[in-house]
Sequence to fold (261 residues):
Amino acid sequence: MTPFTIAVPGGTLTGERRGGTGMPLIFAHGFGGSRRDWDDVIAAFPPDVPIVTYDQRGFGDSFAEAGRAFSHVEDLLVLLDALQIARADLCGVSLGGATVLGAALLAPRRVRRLVLVSPMLAGWSWSEPWVEQWKAIGRAARSGEITQARALWFDHPLFATLRASPQAAALRQSIARFAGQQWVRDDQRVEPPMAERLHAIAAPTLLLTGGLDLPDFRLMADRIAAAIPHVQRIDDPAAGHLLTLERPGEIAAAMATFLLP
Fold:
């Protein structure tokens, strides 16, 4: 993997690129994570596929200028331009799912196929339990208690199945790398509700979900499955939210079947 850093207005995007043949595959991580969260999936994926994995703005090694409004979707399109990738397959987990969905809506000709792993939808009306848990984390972070905020995030119901798995240590390490600035202030621009625009997604889509994920994410996945015209859903009844850590081998196999000739 060859490292790169790309300038975007008010920030930078840091990532790695692997050469190969065929359609490039771009990976976008979830909230609080980094490109490292894809390591086990990439390790199980066919080695000759060209791959790009990067830290979204403000996460991992990527920089976000405080107070500068931005869009993760527009950042992804800038990344494609900088790497001279005219068209690609896009894969995103959770927040990254919203990023790649947004790219498919904004620039459909640049997206051949989509893979959505426990995806989030921009503009979602979150349930009261989610909002209350999120507020508690934010209060800790704004009080300067980032360690406490990280502990609350690790203990969040979103990760219940992962905490009970052998990959719990990997989750803890991922959260420990997160600076937590987005809990204090998130300069990401507000997007129009994505659920109302899903019917416009033209790219064939693979939707990978866990049967034990939280109700908000289950509902978002149901909306996606019902609205996107060409979607294939694989639902693991025993898995939770972060399939990238819980089921990396299974995800890689399903993606290879869907994406490769």
